[in-house]
C-alpha cells in the first residue's frame, strides 16, 4: 500500500540543511543537552517572586473592566454610559459596540470602563445601561443544522468544507467482512488558563508599553498597533511569566485593546484582567466534533473503507474541523464536513487543535472494528498503521508499550470479575507536526566574560526560559549559571508565537547558531595570542583550548579579557537542519469503572512519546505529564454546559466546571524517546491527544458498554451501561 | 474564614459542591465579633473604608480599605505581596491558599476584616532571604510546576500539610492537597515534591546554587 498523507502533519520533505546549520550541528556527546535541568525560574515561581501580568503594579494604575452581553443573541437598542461615568472613581468609559449592532453570544463585549479601584470598577460596570432587543438564538449543533432554523448568521448557520475522497469506497465496502456504523462525538471545553486573559497598559506620549499574558510578544505587538492604528515601533509588549495559554493567548483580543484605549482616555496605566466567568465565556474553547461513520474491516483484519459525515461548532462564526480518519490507513475513504455556527463564544486553538477529536472518533471505532473482527485491538492497529519511519514509530512504541504496560493481562471486552468494580485497558496513538520555521537570537560576550542571550520568545511554562541559555551554555562550553537569558519582550530579536509546539524548534536553532558564531568570533580573537589556528580551538569546561594539545589554552575569563572595548555581538537565525517535523506517540490506559455508580477512576497511564532531540529531560517530561492530565480532564470532567432556553453557560466557574485534582490523578509512566539525529521538534501538544481515547476504550473494555461520546460523567456511563444491557446503543 | 476542609473530611473536592467559601463570606460578617455590637444591635461598617490591621508574614501592617475587600485582594493590591494568585475567586481552586493561625484558608473567600489579630502566612514569606523553604526546594528539584500560577497555592498547601502531618501518609497527602487545581498538569510531580520534602530529602541550598545542583541523567531512548 502506498504511504498516505496523515492528516494534521507537516509535509515530511525536509529542506536541505543550510550552511550554518551544518557547521553548528547538534553535538554528538553533549554535556547539558538531554540531561535533567531544573527550570531556571523555578525559585521565582515557588517563592511568588515571579511577576505575571496579573501581578504588575504601575504608579497611578487604575482598573479596567469589560461590560458584556448577558444574552446569547440580541440587538443593542441603546447604551447609556452616563450613570457609570458619574460613579465614584470612574476615569474612562466607552462603547465597544454601538446601538443597532448585534451581540452574537453571551459575553460579547459591549463597553469598557476603568476606575480607581477594583471595587469601584465593578460597581460602576453595573451602572452601564444597555437596552437589548432579544433575537432568536441557536444553542447546539442539532438546532444549527435544522433547515427550518432561524437564520441567525447572515451567511448561513452552517458552512461546508470541501469533500475529501480517496480510493474506491464501494470496492472498499465490498471487501469488508464486517462493517461498523455509528455516531461519535466530543464536547466543547474551555481553556481555563489559571491566569486570565488581560493586560496592563501604560502610555508615555504616543508610546505604549503593554504587559500582556500572551503566547507571542511580537505577534501581540503587531496586532495592538494595527488595532490602535499606531506605528508598531510605538508599542512594546512584555511577558516575563504567563499563567497558561494552551492556544488561547495568541491574539491581541478585546481585553488587551480595551486596556490600551482606557489607559489613553484616562491618562493613567490600566490593568484589565478577565474574571473567571468571562474567561469561560469569551476566551476560547475547543470545538465540538460529531461524526456519523461507516467503516469496514476485512476478514483478515485489514481496514477497507471509511465514510464519514462530520460536523461541529466553533461558536458564533468559527470553523470546527478536525483530522479524520486519524493515523490508521483506510485505503478507500470519503468524508464531508460541515461547520455549524451557534450563539456561543468563539473557539480558539486549544492544545493540538482538532487532534483529540479526530483521535477519539478513530480510536474508539478501531476498538469496535477489532471486536467485530474478533481481534485484539492492538493487533488490528499494528496491521493498519502507516509504514514505520523515524516520524512514524507507532508500531514500535505499541509493541514496547504492550510489554511495559502488561497488555497481555487485558481481558476481552467486558470484565468477567464478579462485583461492581470492573477493570479495563485501552490504547490510542497520536501525531503532531510541530517543528520550527523562524526565530532569531542575539548573543553578547563581554570582556568580563559575561554572556547574554536575547531572544523575543516567551515561556508558557514549557521551559523556554531554561532552554535558551541551556543551548548557549552547551555551545560555549560554559555552565548554565554563566549565561544570562533575556526573553519575553518585543524589544528583543523576533521570535514566533509559542503555538503549534513550534517555539523550541524555532528559537533553539537560532540560539545554537548565534552561540556558534559568537564562539567562533571569540576563537578568532584568541587564536593569535595562543599561537594556533582558530579552527584548532575548542571550548571545554569554561576553557578555550587547542583540540590536539589541551594544555595550550586559557580560561574563559582570560580569553574574554582580550576583547577589551570591542565585545562580541552576533545574531543567529533559524535555518533548516537543526529542527524537524512530525512526532509519534502512543498511550495505554487502565481504568476501573464502578458499574453501580458510573464513576470512572483512571489507575495508570503509560505515555511513550518522541519529540526529536530532547533538550531538558525534566521539562520535556513535565509537558508529557501535563498533556496526559489535560486529556484526562477532557475525558472525565470538563464540559461547557449551555442552557438550552437562554443560551447562557450554566457552569462558568471552577466548582461546577470540573477539573481533576490530586485524588483523581493516576500513576503516569512517561517514556520520552530521544531522537537526537532529528533535531528539535516540540512536545507541547502531542501528549494531550490520545489519553481521552485510551480511557474511553478502557471503559468500554471494562464494562462492555458502548462508549461513543465524551465526557464520561457517571450519569452518562450509567446510561451507556443501561442501554447496552437493554440492547440499544450508546452514550 | 473559609477553611479549606475539616480534618475528617474525606470528600473529593469535585464531589463536594463548593459553596463553602462563598457562603462563609456572607455569614462571617454576621458572626464576626468585630461586627457584632455589644448589646445585640448590628454595628454597620462600610461601605466606606475602615482601618484594618493585619499580621502578614510576621509583620504588622495597617490598611485603610472597604470592609468588603478580601484577604487576598488586600494582600495583593494593598500590601503589594503578589505571590498568591486569584484564579476562581470562589474558593474552588486553591491558588490563593494562605495559612491563618495554622490552618489553610481560601483567601479569595476570606474577608481581611475577619482575620485581624490572626497570624497570616503567604507564599511570599516562606523563604528566608535567598534560602528556600525545603518544600520550595523540593518543588524546584522535581519540576513540580509549569506555568507556575497554581504553584504558590500548592507550595503553601504542602507546607501546611507537612506542619500538620510531618510524616503524612500517602492518603493524607492526597487529601490535604486535593483542594488545589493545576491546569498545566503537574500533580504527579507535586506529589513527588511533597514526598521528597516530607522525607527531608530536598536539597538544602540557596537560590543561586540550585542550578549548580543539577543532576546529570542522560537517558537516550
Query: Rg of chain B from C-alpha positions?
Result: 19 Å
CATH topology of the largest domain in chain B: Ubiquitin-like (UB roll)
Count helical runs of chain A: 18
Average pLDDT number of chain A: 96
Strand order of the largest sheet of chain A: 3-5-1-14-11-12-13
Counting DSSP E segments of at least 2 residues, the number of strands of chain B comes to: 5
Q: Could you tell me which chain pair has the largest interface and how many residues each side has?
A: A-B, 77 and 79 residues
What assembly state would you assign to the polypeptide chains in this entry?
heterodimer
Helix fraction of chain B? Answer: 25-40%
The separation of the N and C termini of chain A measures 35 Å
Look at the helices and sheets of chain A and give the structural class: alpha+beta
Number of domains of chain A: 3
Question: Can you tell me the residue ranges of chain A where pLDDT is under 50 for at least 5 consecutive residues?
Answer: none
* Overall outline of chain A: globular
Count of domains of chain B: 2
Structure description:
The complex is a heterodimer of chains A (731) and B (221). Chain A folds into three domains: 53-136 and 197-273, Aldehyde Oxidoreductase, domain 4 (2-Layer Sandwich), CATH 3.30.365.10; 285-434 and 580-725, 2-Layer Sandwich (Aldehyde Oxidoreductase, domain 4); 436-573, 2-Layer Sandwich (Aldehyde Oxidoreductase, domain 4). Helix content of chain A is 27%, strand content 24%. Chain A has 18 helices and 29 strands. Chain A has a seven-stranded mixed sheet with strand order 3-5-1-14-11-12-13. In chain A, strands 7, 8, 9, 16, 17 and 18 form a six-stranded mixed sheet that branches. Chain B has a five-stranded mixed sheet with strand order 2-1-5-3-4, with helices on both faces. The radius of gyration of chain B is 19 Å and the shape is elongated. In chain B, strand 3 (97-100) and strand 4 (103-106) form a beta hairpin. Chain B is α+β, with helices and mostly antiparallel strands. Chain B has helices at 20-31, 71-78, 134-141, 151-164, 170-176, 187-198, 207-210, and strands spanning 50-56, 59-65, 97-100, 103-106, 119-121. The longest helix of chain B has 14 residues, at 151-164. Chain B is 29% helix and 11% strand. Classes of the chains: A alpha+beta (731), B alpha+beta (221). Chains A and B meet through helix 2, helix 16 and strand 29 of A and helix 2, helix 3, helix 4, helix 5 and helix 6 of B.
Amino acid at each position: 500500500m502506498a504511504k498516505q498523507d496523515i492528516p494534521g502533519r507537516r509535509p515530511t520533505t525536509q529542506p536541505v540543511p543550510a550552511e550554518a546549520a551544518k557547521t553548528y550541528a547538534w553535538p554528538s556527546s553533549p554535556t547539558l543537552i538531554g540531561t535533567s535541568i531544573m527550570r531556571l525560574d523555578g525559585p521565582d515561581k515557588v517563592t511568588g517572586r515571579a511577576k505575571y501580568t496579573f501581578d504588575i503594579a504601575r504608579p497611578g494604575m487604575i482598573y479596567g473592566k469589560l461590560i458584556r452581553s448577558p444574552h446569547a443573541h440580541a440587538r443593542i437598542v441603546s447604551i447609556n454610559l452616563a450613570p457609570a461615568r458619574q460613579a465614584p472613581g470612574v476615569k474612562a468609559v466607552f462603547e465597544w459596540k454601538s446601538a443597532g449592532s448585534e451581540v452574537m453570544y453571551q459575553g460579547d463585549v459591549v463597553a469598557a470602563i476603568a476606575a480607581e479601584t477594583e471595587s469601584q470598577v465593578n460597581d460602576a460596570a453595573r451602572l452601564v445601561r444597555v437596552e437589548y432587543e432579544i433575537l432568536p438564538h441557536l444553542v447546539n449543533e442539532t438546532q444549527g443544522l435544522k433547515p427550518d432554523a432561524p437564520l441567525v448568521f447572515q451567511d448561513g448557520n452552517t458552512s461546508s468544507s470541501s469533500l475529501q475522497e480517496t480510493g474506491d469506497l464501494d470496492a472498499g465496502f465490498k471487501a469488508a467482512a464486517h462493517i461498523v456504523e455509528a455516531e461519535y462525538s466530543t464536547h466543547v471545553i474551555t481553556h481555563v488558563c489559571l491566569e486570565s486573559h488581560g493586560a496592563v497598559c501604560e502610555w508615555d506620549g504616543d508610546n505604549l508599553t503593554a504587559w500582556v499574558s500572551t503566547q507571542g510578544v511580537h505577534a501581540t505587538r503587531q496586532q495592538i498597533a494595527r488595532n490602535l492604528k499606531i506605528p508598531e515601533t510605538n508599542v512594546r509588549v512584555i511577558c516575563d511569566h504567563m499563567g497558561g495559554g494552551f492556544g488561547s493567548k495568541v491574539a491581541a483580543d478585546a481585553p488587551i485593546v480595551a486596556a490600551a484605549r482606557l489607559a489613553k482616555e484616562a491618562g493613567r496605566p490600566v490593568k484589565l484582567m478577565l474574571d473567571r466567568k468571562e474567561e469561560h465565556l469569551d476566551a476560547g474553547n475547543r470545538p465540538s466534533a460529531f461524526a456519523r461513520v461507516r467503516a469496514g474491516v476485512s476478514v483478515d483484519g485489514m481496514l477497507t473503507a471509511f465514510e464519514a459525515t462530520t460536523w461541529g461548532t466553533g461558536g458564533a462564526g468559527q470553523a470546527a474541523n478536525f483530522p479524520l480518519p486519524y493515523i490508521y490507513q483506510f485505503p478507500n475513504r470519503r468524508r464531508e464536513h460541515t461547520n455549524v455556527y451557534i450563539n456561543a463564544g468563539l473557539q480558539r486553538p486549544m492544545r493540538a487543535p482538532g487532534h483529540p477529536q479526530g483521535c477519539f472518533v478513530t480510536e474508539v471505532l478501531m476498538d469496535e472494528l477489532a471486536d467485530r473482527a474478533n481481534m485484539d485491538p492492538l493487533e488490528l492497529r499494528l496491521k493498519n498503521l502507516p509504514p514505520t519511519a523515524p516520524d512514524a514509530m507507532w508500531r514500535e512504541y505499541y509493541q514496547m508499550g504492550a510489554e511495559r504496560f502488561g497488555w497481555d493481562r487485558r481481558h476481552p471486552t467486558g470484565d468477567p470479575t464478579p462485583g461492581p468494580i470492573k477493570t479495563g485497558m485501552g490504547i490510542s496513538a497520536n501525531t503532531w507536526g510541530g517543528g520550527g520555521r523562524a526565530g532569531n537570537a542575539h548573543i553578547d560576550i563581554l570582556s568580563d566574560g559575561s554572556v547574554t542571550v536575547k531572544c523575543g520568545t516567551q515561556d508558557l511554562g514549557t521551559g523556554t526560559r531554561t532552554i535558551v541559555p541551556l543551548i548557549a551554555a552547551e555551545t560555549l562550553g560554559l555552565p548554565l549559571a554563566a549565561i544570562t537569558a533575556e526573553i519575553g519582550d518585543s524589544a528583543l530579536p523576533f521570535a514566533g508565537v509559542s503555538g503549534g509546539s513550534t517555539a523550541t524548534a524555532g528559537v533553539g536553532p537560532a540560539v545554537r547558531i548565534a552561540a556558534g558564531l559568537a564562539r567562533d568570533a571569540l576563537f578568532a580573537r584568541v587564536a593569535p595570542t595562543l599561537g594556533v589556528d582558530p579552527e584548532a580551538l575548542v571550548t571545554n569546561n569554561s576553557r578555550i583550548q587547542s583540540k590536539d594539545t589541551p594544555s595550550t589554552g586559557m580560561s574563559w575569563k582570560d580569553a574574554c579579557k582580550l576583547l577589551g572595548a570591542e565585545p562580541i555581538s552576533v545574531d543567529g537565525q533559524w535555518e533548516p537542519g537543526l529542527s524537524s517535523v512530525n512526532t509519534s506517540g502512543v498511550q495505554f490506559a487502565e481504568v476501573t469503572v464502578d458499574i453501580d455508580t458510573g464513576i470512572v477512576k483512571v489507575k495508570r497511564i503509560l505515555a511513550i512519546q518522541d519529540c526529536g532531540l530532547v533538550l531538558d529531560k525534566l521539562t520535556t517530561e513535565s509537558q508529557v505529564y501535563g498533556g496526559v492530565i489535560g486529556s484526562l480532564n477532557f475525558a472525565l470532567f470538563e464540559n461547557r454546559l449551555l442552557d438550552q432556553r437562554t443560551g447562557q453557560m450554566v457552569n462558568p466557574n471552577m466548582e461546577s466546571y470540573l477539573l481533576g485534582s490530586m485524588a483523581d490523578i493516576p500513576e503516569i509512566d512517561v517514556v520520552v524517546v530521544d531522537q537526537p539525529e532529528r533535531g528539535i521538534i516540540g512536545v507541547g501538544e502531542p501528549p494531550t491527544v490520545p489519553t481521552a481515547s485510551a480511557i474511553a476504550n478502557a471503559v468500554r473494555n471494562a464494562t462492555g458498554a458502548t462508549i461513543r461520546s465524551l465526557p464520561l460523567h457517571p450519569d452518562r456511563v450509567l446510561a451507556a451501561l443501561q442501554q447496552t444491557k437493554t440492547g440499544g446503543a450508546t452514550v | 474564614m473559609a477553611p479549606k476542609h475539616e480534618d475528617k473530611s474525606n470528600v473529593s473536592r469535585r464531589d463536594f459542591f463548593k459553596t463553602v467559601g462563598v457562603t462563609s463570606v456572607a455569614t462571617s460578617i454576621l458572626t464576626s465579633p468585630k461586627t457584632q455590637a455589644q448589646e445585640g444591635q448590628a454595628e454597620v461598617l462600610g461601605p466606606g473604608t475602615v482601618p484594618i490591621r493585619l499580621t502578614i508574614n510576621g509583620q504588622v501592617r495597617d490598611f485603610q480599605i472597604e470592609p468588603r475587600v478580601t484577604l487576598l485582594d488586600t494582600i495583593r493590591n494593598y500590601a503589594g505581596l503578589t505571590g498568591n494568585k486569584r484564579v476562581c475567586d470562589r474558593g474552588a481552586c486553591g491558588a490563593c491558599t494562605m495559612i491563618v493561625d495554622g490552618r489553610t484558608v481560601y483567601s479569595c473567600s476570606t474577608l481581611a476584616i475577619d482575620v485581624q489579630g490572626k497570624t497570616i502566612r503567604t507564599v511570599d514569606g516562606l523563604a528566608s532571604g535567598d534560602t528556600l523553604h525545603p518544600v520550595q526546594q523540593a518543588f524546584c528539584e522535581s519540576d513540580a510546576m509549569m506555568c507556575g500560577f497554581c504553584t504558590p497555592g500548592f507550595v503553601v498547601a504542602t507546607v501546611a500539610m507537612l506542619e500538620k502531618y510531618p510524616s503524612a501518609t500517602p492518603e493524607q497527602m492526597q487529601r490535604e492537597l486535593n483542594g488545589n487545581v493545576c491546569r498545566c498538569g503537574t500533580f504527579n510531580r507535586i506529589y513527588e515534591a511533597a514526598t521528597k520534602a516530607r522525607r527531608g530529602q530536598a536539597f538544602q541550598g540557596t537560590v543561586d546554587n540550585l542550578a549548580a545542583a543539577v543532576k546529570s541523567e542522560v537517558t537516550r531512548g
